[in-house]
Amino acid sequence: MKTTFDFAVLALVGIGAIAGCGGGTASAPAPTALQPPKAKAPTTEQEPAKADPTPATPATSAGAKPLATPAAPAPTAIVSDLKSPERLAISGGQLFWIDRKEGAIMTAPTTGGEAKPFATKQKGLEDLSVDGAAVYWTVSDGKGGGAVMEAPLKGGAPTKLATMAPSDLGGPLGLVVGESHVQWVHSMAFGSILKVGKAGGGTTTVASKQRSPFGIAADAAGTYWTTFGAGIADGAVMAAGPKGGEPRVIADHQRSPWRIASDGKDVFWTVKGPPGAVLKAPIAGGASTTLVADVKDPTSIALDGEWVYWASDELDVVKKVKKDGSASVVIAESQKGPAGLALDATSVYWPNKADGTIMKAPK
User: Fold this and answer.
1) Are 114 and 37 contacting, i.e. CB atoms less than 8 angstroms apart?
2) CA separation for the pair 357, 177 (Å, rounded)
3) Which residues of 248-272 are buried (b: 16+ CB within 10 A; e: fewer)?
4) Quick one: DSSP state of residue 283?
5) Distances (CA, A) of 246 to 94, 176, 226
6) Where is 14: in which H helix or E strand?
7) C-alpha angle 157-162-165 in degrees, rounded to nearest 5
8) Per-residue pLDDT for the chain (363 aa), expressed as one digit of tens each?
9) Bond prior to 29 in cis (omega within 30° of 0)
10) Residues 6 or more apart from 104 whose CB is under 8 A from it?
């Protein structure tokens, strides 16, 4: 399912192609459901989750057939009657998501219930992230500028951590929060990775002259992001150390790399393609491995200790694959535009953008 932002991204790539090549870097080696009070939660009549009969292989770059794994119970809707939920984050038993049609950050407990506004009058919402104290999000002004916002988990007026002046194209997009800083992507033909302290202060550039950057992740070892590049197969997965420095290439020649995640050892990302895929590569450097191959528009991604979770808003599925590629499991099929993923110790959650629900299933 294509979103307004998807077309904006395509425009970025096209303009990037016209702009010509930028600063280069060396290439890397080749739920029973708890019904909300409004009680219009959709019934789920789908079959239980099952072993996925397609992709995945033990640590090879080509992909292969997975080993069968036990089926899991079917998912259920825990929140309904939403306008257009997407992205998703979890902290302290609360779910948070963005709703562009509402112009709001919304929240509900992981046990289910009525959705409540967390922050309203937020025009141009793009992404959000959470820690144990606050919710952080990006807003775009539609003119290439915007802001990074913050509000305490317990509630309170939002504050601006950073602002960006209008530019030729793009605006603040992907966002990630770390131990001391919030980092985000400011995307345009030659975009930047920026950061600011959680308490505010000056904005620092982590990397510049990046060709249409989009997804972002971070851990103690550094910051990682995807770039679309100047053409369909010119995308890359990039990295910079905790103190910045010259960015390095983790994987190049990617066909529209999208979201990205890190477990401190490897980075994992989705590629929209075509063809779409889920891949990983060592942070320290080395060849990339294809965990899931030949799928349509895998977008969202999340990790726990053993599995990589991913969703496709075109195939309307949520699945997981082992980090070593040895097994793949279907968590949910026949969804309605899954547009984000969040995990806690026992469950996986996602927003169905097309039917306005938040779904929950056992991991």
Assistant:
1) yes
2) 26
3) bbbbbebbbbbbbbbbeebbbbbbb
4) T
5) 38, 20, 16
6) helix 4-19
7) 120
8) 444 334 333 333 333 333 333 334 444 444 333 344 443 443 433 444 455 554 444 444 444 444 444 555 789 999 999 999 999 999 999 999 999 999 999 999 999 999 999 999 999 999 999 999 999 999 999 888 999 999 999 989 999 999 998 876 678 999 999 999 999 999 888 899 999 999 989 999 999 999 999 999 999 999 999 999 988 889 999 999 988 889 999 999 999 999 999 999 999 999 999 999 999 999 999 999 999 999 999 999 999 999 999 999 999 999 999 999 999 999 999 999 999 999 999 999 999 999 999 999 999
9) no
10) 98, 117, 118, 119, 120, 121, 122, 125
d(CA 101, CA 97): 12
The residue behind tokens 């980090």 is: 323
Identity at 159, one-letter amino acid code: T
CA distance 17 to 212: 10
**What CA–CA distance (Å, rounded) separates 52 from 315?**
14
d(CA 350, CA 267): 21
No. of helices (H) and no. of strands (E), the chain: 1, 29
- The secondary element (H helix, E strand) that includes residue 331 is strand 328-332
Concatenating the DSSP letter of every residue in 213-244 gives EEEEEEETTEEEEEE-TTSTT-EEEEEEETTE
Domain boundaries, given as residue ranges, for the chain: 4-19+80-273+339-362
Pair of tokens at residue 221 = 């070892």
Structural contact between residues 247 and 238, judged by C-beta atoms closer than 8 angstroms: yes
Q: Please give the CATH topology (third level) of the domain spanning 4-19+80-273+339-362.
A: Neuraminidase (2.120.10)
For residue 17, what is the enclosing H or E element? helix 4-19
